[in-house]
Specification:
By secondary structure, the chain is mainly alpha-helical. It is built from nine helices and two strands.
């Protein structure tokens, strides 16, 4: 053992990706059934499914499971996989909202969600504003579902508080990073230190550090392992 990280066996990352995507599909299939049973608009779940199906590297989900393995995770990986799948729904939320703020035309080679929503409204003069509002709500649901997946990950009681604390910290960091990004763009600032803060919160922390730490926390890792993953992330 070095700095709290275990010499784990090799990981089949393609298999991990398939398992994460299966967990997402099972969860969203249940959401589709719930929507049908309650009379909710079916296109909302389908929009999230289509967004996830459009691509993405699943890097956060993979690193979460890597963190679990590196911290000594062994045996049933269900909890780690559900936390990993939760990260993909969180990413969907963040990107849908990011595209609204940037008024991006596309994402992953397809029209951005707010553009899809706008197109559904046809010639309505309010279509642009309402499409953005609809996409905002779809993104909100993706975040709520990310939290639901996290809360149903069947974590060991002694590890649940740490996992949830790390997840909450990640959410807060991304929001601060996005705020700095938006407001910095509005001011036209040319500040390298400000840019590095944005990159830290939106990229280093949320893409590398926290996913690794979340997987490690599921496995019951201690502070030394968390410090290693902070160093890697930054």
């Amino acid at each position: 053992m070095t700095s709290g990280v275990v010499d784990a066996p090799s990981i089949d990352l393609r298999a991990v990706r398939r398992q994460v995507e299966a967990a997402l599909e099972d969860f969203l299939a249940e959401k589709t059934r719930e929507a049908a049973g309650r009379g909710h608009p079916p296109e909302v779940v389908q929009t999230v499914r289509d967004f996830l199906a459009a691509g993405g590297k699943r890097i956060r989900a993979l690193l979460c499971v890597v963190g679990w393995h590196a911290a000594g995770g062994d045996g049933d990986a269900t909890s780690a996989l559900r936390v990993a799948a939760s990260l993909e729904l969180f990413v969907a939320f963040a990107l849908i909202h990011d595209d609204i703020m940037d008024d991006s035309a596309s994402r992953r080679g397809r029209p951005a969600v707010h553009r899809v929503m706008r197109a559904r409204l046809g010639e309505d003069e309010r279509a642009e504003r309402l499409g953005a509002g609809g996409a905002l709500l779809v993104g909100n649901l993706a975040l709520m579902w990310a939290q639901e997946l996290l809360h149903t990950a069947r974590l060991e009681p002694g590890r649940q508080r740490l996992v949830h604390g790390l997840y909450d910290a990640m959410l807060e960091e991304v929001m601060y990073g996005q705020y700095l990004d938006v407001m910095g763009t509005g001011r036209g600032a040319d500040d390298v230190e400000a840019a590095l803060r944005i990159i830290r919160y939106k990229t280093a922390t949320a893409t590398i550090e926290r996913p690794l730490q979340l997987g490690a926390a599921v496995a019951g890792a201690g502070e030394a392992t968390m410090d290693v993953f902070t160093g890697l992330g930054l």
